[in-house]
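anyone seen this seq b4? input:
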Amino acid sequence: MVSTKRKIAVVSGTRADSGLLFPLLRYLNQDPSIDLQLIVTGMHLSHEYGYTYKEFEARNFKITKKIEMLLSSDTSSSVVKSLGLGTIGFSDAFSELQPDLLVLLGDRYEILAAAQSAMIFKIPIAHIHGGETSEGAIDEAIRHSITKMSHLHFTSAEAHTKRVLQLGESENRVFTVGAPGLDSLIETDEMSLIEFEESISFKLSLELNFLITYHPVTLDNQDPTIALTQLFSALDQYPSAHIIFTQSNSDPAGKLIFHKIKEYASLYPTRIKIVNTLGIQRYANALRHVDIVLGNSSSGLIEAPLFLTPSINIGDRQKGRLKGDSVISCKENKEDIVLAIEKAQNTEFIKSIQRKQNPYGQGGASEKIYETVKNCNLDDLIKKQFNDLI
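predicted toks r here
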């Protein structure tokens, strides 16, 4: 008998998008009318990045396909080759699985490989987090490219909906739902300070604690070690602070950045901890217990404000992205970073952000996405008209 279940495939390529997808996956997985096809790829399958596909299994999600695509090098050439390998892998997967709908989140090259493959296979795409900007990274172009290959759009704010419409998408296919990653954070169990410290085998300071994630600025031709040296010099101004570093993405120069971070951490083994991946529960509790989030990850702009934790956004990687009042932007030099850290510790600043709303919403996005992908009419969804604004 031919199954009447709606086959919905979801792709995850990194620890970053998996944490955002967990609540949506749970909705899909529990629905008897849906056949969830979970495809993992990229950093999830790498020993170097912690085999994070295991986080899906720990939550009782059955992985339908694993697509190996990540080369061990982090040069531009290796990333392009990884993109090609991913395209081949998704071709095989889509030939076998034949999903009715593909759900993609974000703007990384792993997701681009899935999108371009699905486009040729005439598989409708539902895209999450379109319409955003990050002018310092290749993610900017990838994100907008995926928008044009997609057929349903779930944006995190009205400003992002307007950009998707600017790209010619029809208004009845764009849904402003907020950021689904907030759902994961809201659902996590709160850990006491002692429980959190035991979970990462590291004690936080009684004075000041940083959570730092620094990724390559992929559209910048400057040597990334120059900016890192400025960051390290700024951190040296706070000798009593304890620091948690998380690993950089598998972008060009990602390995170089992580190598430099490990070199710096080796100078202060009692007050610096490097964690390849915290996972969603430990990450949520890190946001609860640290004093400042620092770096150039989108999480500092989207997720950190949920906990009213001050975050410092360094440099141009996230330039143009919507940010709330708890986010302080600064240049990649020691003086600016120190000034930002001082502001983030200011009592009046901390009081002021307690009264502000996160521009990415307060949760509930995952259920809205689930309801739409479950009930949308798939007939002729693959065909789109360009929506002229003039």
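The mean pLDDT is 92. The first strand starts at residue 6 and ends at 12. kinda curious what u guys think
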